[in-house]
Amino acid sequence: MKQISSTFMNNRSYNQYCGLAYALELLGERWTILIIRELVAGPRRFKDLLNGLPGISTNLLTERLKHLEQHGLIVRQVLAPPAGSTVYGLTDLGRGLEPTLIEWGKWGSQFVPANSEHVHILTIGSYALTLKTFFRPELAQFRETYQWHVDGELLSITIDHGQLYIQQGLSQQPDTIIHTTIEVYLQLLQGAISPQQAVDQGLLQIQGQLVALERFLACCAINAPA
């Protein structure tokens, strides 16, 4: 067992010799878990995190990032030129939370409203964990790479014989390239619209075979197509 950190021993501590209590002290503050969610698909800039967390203030985001960095869950780094941007990414310790977050997402999905009329729609990167939550490895016995262009964001997704890999940005030689909006992307995942309907209505442009997108949805959709 790791030595108990003295940074926890304060007036906000549960002061309980219990792993769950220490986890809550690390992650229980508002927005903290959602920051981890934002980094599942890879490192992000501060302004990208703000975009994926509508409602958080810059000061509070700075505070939460500092907290997570101090406790070794995230790391800050400067990208090499020409980018030169500062990004935040998960450490191995932070990535270790992914299975737990997936289970929380499965449990919490039963409370998600049927429509998004009164809630924020997020970015495609924010929904990376959703794909992992509903992924069906038994249906994913093939290899295919998808490059999604959604409202100015890029997400590359590879299905490889029961494994799902997700990363921000471009992928090399994608099999299928898709352009659409986040609203249509979510409708596809929810089964509210079929790929063919989205193409016919001019809501989605695809380079590659439509059947590839249908395979993707069979493996990753919230409601699997019949």
TrEMBL record:
It comes from the Bacteria. InterPro entries: HTH_HxlR, SCP2_sterol-bd_dom, SCP2_sterol-bd_dom_sf, WH-like_DNA-bd_sf, WH_DNA-bd_sf. Keywords: DNA-binding, Transcription, Transcription regulation. It holds the Pfam family SCP2. Residues 18-116 form the HTH hxlR-type domain. This is HTH hxlR-type domain-containing protein. It comes from Herpetosiphon gulosus.
